[in-house]
Amino acid sequence: MFSQTNCEDISDPKHLFLRSENSKTLELTTSSPGASPRDTRCTYHTCFDVYHCGYNDKTRISVYIYPVNQYVDQAGNAVTLPVSKEFYEMLEAIADSPYYTNDPDMACLLVPSVDLLNQNSIRLREVGQILASLPWWNNGNNHLLFNMLPGGSPDYSTVLEVDTGKAVIAGGGFSTWSYRRTFDVSIPIFNPLIQPDKMPQKSYLEKRTYLLISSQTSLHKEYRDVLHEIEKQEPRFLFIQKCPTDERTWNFSRRCKENVAYDYPQILQDSTFCLVVRGARIGQPALFDVMSAGCIPVIVADGYILPFSEVLDWKRIAVTVLEEELENLIQILESYSQEKIYELRQQVTFIWQKYFSSPKAIALTTLRIINDRVFPYAGKSYEEWNDMPNTKTIKNPLFLPLRPPSAQGFTAVILTYDRLESLFKVIHSVAKVPSLAKVVVVWNNQKKSPPPMTSWPDIGKPLKFVKTRKNKMSNRFFPYDEIQTECILALDDDIVMLTADELEFAYEVWREFPDRLVGFPSRVHLLDNTTNKWKYESEWTNDISMVLTGAAFYHKYFSYLYTHAMPVELKTWVDEHMNCEDIAMNFLMSNVTGKAAIKVTPRKKFKCPECVNTEMLSSDLGHMIERSDCINQFTRIYQSMPLKSIEFRADPVLYKDDFPDVLKKYKDIGML
């Protein structure tokens, strides 16, 4: 399966392990000692010596690659084949990486230059002798062996059948019985016959012709029978196999159904889901094929340890179905919403490109997993492993892992038109918050002048008003010179129900998360499966994806982005419709940070007691429809859906506990 390469044209000094004066031709005899059998009880804590791993620095392992030697038997016949192109690329990637060292005495991990990717290409006993002859073998301690195709006919073991002692195996076919958790690494089976650059680009939003495709050859009869039954009942299922004309010389790039031929793997791009069923080996290169085509894998292989499952969340990548549930496959797949399908497609492409797409990516991912075991405090987080970087993000150097100082306080920016009585109540209410530094009123009424300063409330804090030139909802997010604090509290002029304790607590939450929108009224976006459009939802749910800026804290930096960096088309939409500026800010911040907004306290009622329904925009059904239109327009403009849904709410400690108020820092927190 893997092609051979010529290692004679090596010029990079880092690659001298492939061609150095230390390379020798060594003879194996029948009496040469072999390695001890694979220790099935190994764990990271019992078989890995971490005391060899501090030489590079305190955050990175060092890896040594043995020179490539030639091994012959007593008759002078070569015991090993030339290094395959794929294995050479793995060694080259390690040599070019920050992990590499040319000093074995300083190495945490040692990689033999013996190509074990395909067990069918090696002589098992002799390879065991080769490993035992390595100068630093030491029963395999801290050695790493790569293997993608383990086992041989007829049993097809799920692990490399070479005596490997205590060596770590990065293997492509582990089952729950053979995988040594915390010790081995499960890797994908690379398919060198796949050429992704020859496949057309397809958007994750593009409609697919088929619901499901099965394209594997040589499936077990039991599985074929079930799939034929599904095929009879489901026209959206395409069951293709090896072409009848390919019996002698198999053409990998073709699959057939009866007399109709399909280009492979291009046909996989026409399906939403692609089946990956266990074969003679539990690990299948078909998984690599379908992911390279951007198709969502449907994995039917009980007990299979999925590639890099130690760090990758496969629930976000694939559909896993028990073998006994194969006959119910269509019902299972139909339960997935269009929104979930879009998420899975994006994740499949991201994971394949980053971790699966080349021998280099596979080798470096393996080393990073081992590195994270050795130095967990410097390891990548779940989000760093699994979350897609937002390519449209405005790179933001502002936010460091530090809390903004509390002494600076926040500026309350209140947008108003002409509701003076309600406005003054809001000013009096917010003035009671200890961390308030200043109040800035944005006067959005060009037909009427604001009252003289003598009639404004005396709150003991600076109070300024800014008269705008045009009545625009975006005026609330302009970075006015009067705002001198990092933190801004955006307030509507009718939010009179929030207490000082609630606002003070929300400000403290913002100090913990200064790159988030932190506020009170929350909303969620949903995908309507009937119309395939996004819908704005104001019902009370545990999920939230937006916090309305009628009462929300955010960093002044985002006012600059909203004013100067947000797409002009989006700002124009907001100003023309006099709506959705809060949704636009949620889109902007989630797009920049890749993070969700945070809801604070359990309060869900935000009605203005003095306002009637005709004055409340949110009471209008047409308004809700327009908010949904906004979400769909903004998604089109951003060419993606940046909003993140989470189930999270920040509450003060003890707020519901039956303790005396004197023990509670925030006593006046609103109820549901």
UniProtKB/TrEMBL annotation:
Pathway per the UniProt entry: Protein modification; protein glycosylation
Names of required cofactors: Mn(2+)
Superkingdom: Eukaryota
Short name of one Pfam family: Exostosin_GT47
Protein name (Swiss-Prot/TrEMBL): Exostosin-2
Residue ranges of every copy of the Exostosin GT47 domain listed in the record: 59-335
Keywords for this protein: Disulfide bond, Endoplasmic reticulum, Glycoprotein, Glycosyltransferase, Golgi apparatus, Manganese, Membrane, Metal-binding, Signal-anchor, Transferase, Transmembrane, Transmembrane helix
Topological type in the membrane: Single-pass type II membrane protein
Gene3D superfamilies in the cross-refs: Spore Coat Polysaccharide Biosynthesis Protein SpsA, Chain A
EC number of the protein: 2.4.1.224
Similarity-based family: Belongs to the glycosyltransferase 47 family.
Cellular component GO terms, alphabetical: endoplasmic reticulum membrane; Golgi membrane
GO molecular function, one term: glucuronosyltransferase activity
InterPro entries: Exostosin (IPR004263), Exostosin_GT47 (IPR040911), GT64_dom (IPR015338), Nucleotide-diphossugar_trans (IPR029044)
Domain Glycosyl transferase: 410-655
Subcellular location field: Endoplasmic reticulum membrane; Golgi apparatus membrane
Predominant location: endoplasmic reticulum
Signal sequence residues: none
GO biological process: heparan sulfate proteoglycan biosynthetic process
